[in-house]
Amino acid sequence: MPPLSVRLPTVGPMSETPLARTRRARRMYRELADFYPYAQCELDFSTPLELLVATILSAQTTDVGVNKVTPTLFARYLDAAAYAAADRAELEAIILPTGFFRAKADSLIKLGAALQERFGGEVPGRLADLVTLPGVGRKTANVVLGNAFGVPGLTVDTHFGRLVRRFGWTQEEDPVKVEAAIGEIFPRRDWTMLSHVVIFHGRRICHAKRPACGGCPVARLCPSYGIGETDPIAALRLRKFELAPGHAAAPDAR
After folding, report:
1. What are residue 221's phi and psi, to 5 degrees?
2. What is the pLDDT of residues 131-146, one digit of tens each?
3. Known catalytic residue: 139?
C-alpha cells in the first residue's frame, strides 16, 4: 500500500456541537469500516459457550494467545457440566499460557456450575442474565451477544475506550458511561461492527503508546492527530496487521 496522503485535521471536540460530533463520528466509522472490511471477532469459537469461555480467558492477554489454547480446552470440556466438574489442576495446566490461570480456572468452574444450575447448561441470550454469571461483565456479555446471538452490543475494552476518547466522541472514562455515550451517537444496528472496527484500528494503527498518525485513514477527522508519528513513511512501519491464524488477511495491509 502506498503511503497515505494525510491532511491536517480541522476538527476539535471543544468547538463542536453535538450534531457535528455525531456526523463526524459516523463518518469516521464509515471510513474505518471501508478500511477494515474484514473486521470480525478474532477469538475462535463455534458455540456461544466457546465464545464465552474464550472471552473470559482473553482478559489481560491477546486473542492470538487464547486461540492457541482453546482447541485443547474445547476438545476436553464440551459443555457446561464438564467445566463444572473440571479437575482444577488439569484445567489450570491447559489455560496456563493465558495468564492469571488460577483466577480464570475458578471463573470457568463456577461458570459451568452456574449455567447448569440456573440456565439448563445453556448460555443465556440476554444481557441481564449474562452479567450474573461468574467472570462475566458487560464487555464480555456484549461480545457474546453480538457475535454468538446477533444481538447488537458495544464492546468497551481498553482499545475501544482509548480510541473513542482520542476521537473526541466522548470524554467519559467509566466503561458503562462510555457505552451509553457511544450508544447515543450510533444506531443500535451498528454497535457490534462498530466495536470490531474500532478495536481493529486500536490494535493495528492507533496504538496506546505510539499511534501511527501519519498512516491513519481517518487522521483528517481526528482531533488527536499529532500525538503519534506523523511522518507517513515512519508511520507505515508502525502499523500492525497480524491476524490470528485462520482469520481473513488484510487485503491492502502490506
Report:
1. -105, 0
2. 999 999 999 999 999 9
3. yes
